[in-house]
Design brief:
Largest sheet: 5 strands, mixed
Number of strands: 5
Order of helices and strands: EEEHEHHEH
Helix content: 25-40%
Strand order of the largest sheet: 3-2-1-4-5
Structural class: alpha/beta
Shape: globular
Distance between the termini: 40 Å
């Protein structure tokens, strides 16, 4: 299996913050392989937790493939700046999620973490909200 460039687009959604929450992720492969779309209902939590859970969901999928480089795209400034080490992780409940994300990111040979506009992250946002909607419909 030839290593490939992978881009993950991640977003979390929380209605009420805290409230019903979902994680959405899009995993794109540089070799033209079919894009993977992932979503998960998270229960009652905050938007920041949902952002981290979306990233972990995407990293789990990416780790199943031979990756030459990984690009993470998120519209969460907090997530991006914490992962880059520009912001400290002050919220106690985010520390384990941050630590797990950093642990998972270290397995990839090269990683870029980019802050993008909400427009560029629309599909991941839709998936996060889809997870909440599907849970509510039962």
């Amino acid at each position: 299996m030839t290593p490939v460039e992978v881009t993950v687009r991640v977003d979390g959604a929380s209605r009420g913050n805290p409230g019903p929450s979902g994680a959405g992720a899009v995993v794109e492969f540089g070799d033209g392989r079919a894009t993977r779309e992932l979503c998960a209902y998270l229960g009652e939590t905050t938007n920041n937790v949902a952002e981290y859970r979306a990233l972990l969901l995407a990293l789990e999928e990416a780790s199943r493939h031979a990756v030459s480089s990984l690009t993470v795209r998120s519209d969460s400034e907090l997530l991006v700046r914490q992962l880059r080490g520009e912001y400290r992780v002050r919220a106690e409940h985010l520390r384990p999620l941050h630590a797990e994300a950093c642990r998972r990111l270290r397995v990839f040979p090269a990683v870029r973490i980019l802050h993008v506009s909400r427009e560029e992250n629309r599909r991941a946002d839709s998936l996060a909200n889809l997870a909440i909607d599907q849970q509510r419909k039962g």
